[in-house]
Amino acid sequence: MTxxxxxxxxxxxxxxxxxxxxxxxxxxxxxxxxxxxxxxDQAKLSLTDFASYSVKTRDIVKSSYRGNDIVxxxxxxxxxxxxxxxxxxxxKYDIASMPITTAEPWRLMVxxxxxxxxxxxxxxxxxxxxxTPVEALLDEDYIDDRFDMIPDEGAGDxxxxxxxxxxxxxxxxxxxxxxxxxxxxxxxxARVMPLL
Length: 196
Hints:
Elements: H1 4-16, H2 18-22, H3 25-36, H4 47-51, E1 60-65, E2 68-73, H5 79-90, H6 104-123, H7 134-137, H8 140-147, H9 171-175
Antiparallel strand pairs: 1-2
Helix pairs in contact: 5-6, 5-8
EC number: 2.3.2.2
Pfam families: G_glu_transpept
Protein name: Gamma-glutamyltranspeptidase
């Protein structure tokens, strides 16, 4: 799979520098595209928003699955923790030996992700504003406790699944669902090396 437009955009940023995104043609294109999709009364994006932006380096989330290193973005992007939790639970099953034409490997993946999603909803947040319990969520004993909640057969009930760290205040419960300071947005760019 290729994405020539993304490749051209990243090449232009590399060649022209940050100003191409923050104050140049790409920034203007993003502002125009976003604003064209907003209703009249909605706040608009501006090049000033880009110019006042500051890059923050975040911790990565690293885990392993059957001898493979899994590296992903940490919070505020929440997918890395969710994927790591899910794979840590699934590692206890020999999914590779299960026929993909049966429901079982898919059921197990759904159940692991259902549990990880409950944690994601409760604990994901921007570490600039809230504490995010990444180490606790990826702790081996914690993963074992979550794994024990996967039903032996059938589907779990999403409505009854609760986040699993009761001693940790969730950002949503602690801060409220809406930021009182300002909203954040995340743009992640990674250099990916081809597998040899």
